[in-house]
Amino acid sequence: MKRNLIFVKVLLLSLALASLHACQKDFVQSSETEVSEEEFTLATAKQHFRSLDKRLAKENPVLADPKSSELVWSRSYVEHRAQVDFAEIPLVAKRKRVKLYNFPQDSLKYEPDPSVGELSVQRLLFYKGKDGEIMERIVTYIPDKEYLIRRKMEMGLNTIKKMQSNFSGYMEYRTLENRVTKILRLKDGRVVRKYIPRQSVIAKKTTSNPSSEPIVSSRGCHTTCFPIFDYVCDSYVVEEEIIVECINQQVGQDCDTYCDPDPDPDPNPNPNPTDPEPEYYDCNGVRNGSAYTAECGCIGGNTGISECVDASIPDDAELIGQENPEVNPEDYTDCFGNISNTGASFKVTAYVLEPNPGTNDFFGTNSVGHVAIGLTKTGGNGQSITQVLGFYPEGANIFKEYTGPSKIVDNGDSDDLMPYTIKMDFDMGNNAAAFQNILNKVNTPPATYHALTNNCVRYVYEACQAGGLAVPFQMSTIYMSTTPFSPPVPVSAYTPAGMAQAMRGAMAGGNTNISTANNVDVPTSHGPCN
Fold it and tell me: What mean pLDDT is reported for the chain?
């Protein structure tokens, strides 16, 4: 026997485990088996369940015993389809028996092990067709080992009504008498194969290492043996965590002959109700949609995204102008005091250098790109001062270390002018107070630079915000390794590409303050005044 301890956060626990002590079944002695032709509801399902009391006691004592299993009616739902209405109710059993399917046709990456059955989810299914007869099935969701590695906490979200677009595994349908009626093979949320048992040949714990080699018996059919595991589980709460302790033991193997379902040459326009099968929703939430999950996220279908952009940034990437010396921003902004506010006008410009101009790429010919702020004050006598400043990390390897000391650089230095590919101008008229608010923000940069969340983009965005200026902007999702040797994972970030794409969208919408350029240099800064 093998004992496993699983520690799971309460809010993320699957429905099957989270509701272990949720409610008790109410068994009512009744000889009623007829259900009225009224609308199928949860109340209808409950009434039918109570009518099964004697039958359950005889054919499925575990399900009949409230000390051994619980139906979580509070987490149930009812679905109405063209030919069948059904209700699906989470079933929490303190003891369950799970067959670990692994059909050769499915080419599973990992051999199923006891953890697969331990984290499987069971539900009781009631369904009614147009003839009014209610049928029952015990449905077991058996995940692939590969799915558990990536998405263990999502197991409880999979239902017949809405299957998660990344679920891969099996769904087993059983009668209350524990006779398997079919097994569905799902890949990325879609039913890709169906297995129908032709006969059941149960081997009573014949060997601890049964052969899983298929025995082909006839065209379209094959006999395969799978291991069966028993799970006995108990749970308790410690410091807001549910601790589930399970004992598992292989109790034998089950050998069945499975056949491909025969095609129906003459479909019946009014078929009898069949076991409801899961409907597919793509990663964008569209029923039977064509969007799919790629390495950069959900694309295709109606997402508006046809392909993945370059969403990775090398560890050794640096910003354009990063090697330039640090300056004191107040030495630059103090120069504006040399021009009287009387009759003066003010202008602010957000300059963006895109990694690959006109694309969503986050790294390209211009490295990761850069964003700088241009500040201009023109006096009533025509005297004008412009300063162009940018926020940078002080050291190298910022996309490896992510965070470090910051500095301000003069991007308008005549010896190394920053190029830009798109800009947005704000003519502020004579609003000296708003301009001063921007200067105050520029003069107090954060002491720490973070490559993703506190960088040149955010510096310019928030400086403009301080003066009531709205720069179009959108967060980006990029792929970075958050720890050494770990695979890249998606993270949200402020990026020059994100700001540039938002600007281009606003320009397409008619904003005339935005213009593009082909790596044109920003204006030369006046420089420090002391």
Answer: 78
